[in-house]
Amino acid sequence: xxxxxxxxxxxxxxxxxxxxxxxxxxxxxxxxxxxxxxxxxxxxxxxxxxxxxxxxxxxxxxxxxxxxxxxxxxxxxxxxxxxxxxxxxxxxxxxxxxxxxxxxxxxxxxxxxxxxxxxxxxxxxxxxxxxxxxxxxxxxx
Length: 141
Fold this sequence. Notes:
Elements: H1 3-12, H2 22-32, H3 36-49, H4 55-73, H5 77-91, E1 97-98, E2 101-102, H6 103-119
Antiparallel strand pairs: 1-2
Helix pairs in contact: 1-3, 2-3, 3-4, 4-5, 5-6
């Protein structure tokens, strides 16, 4: 087990037995706590395990969404815009609800944040600690 895997295990341990893979739930928990880099790492382990499944590109889109906010946290506004567009290009391939979350809501969130960047010509970072995005948690199975 790598050092990274141990840290991820600590982040998701309390999510066992809640109807979804703890990595998946951990993504949303970390994301909603503004731990965007960690949300990326948590889901990456699951994403790597599910190649050749319909979930693969969905998880990839979630990872890219978190990555866009990592870029915003680091004041890399243009890079964030690119990842918002890339993430959206994957989400639009999925039905309105997938893996018990609303892809429609996620796409709306992406559109909102991307339009904030566009409005300011990709010159101003709209992310603050007080306006951080929240993703609705997956419904239990």
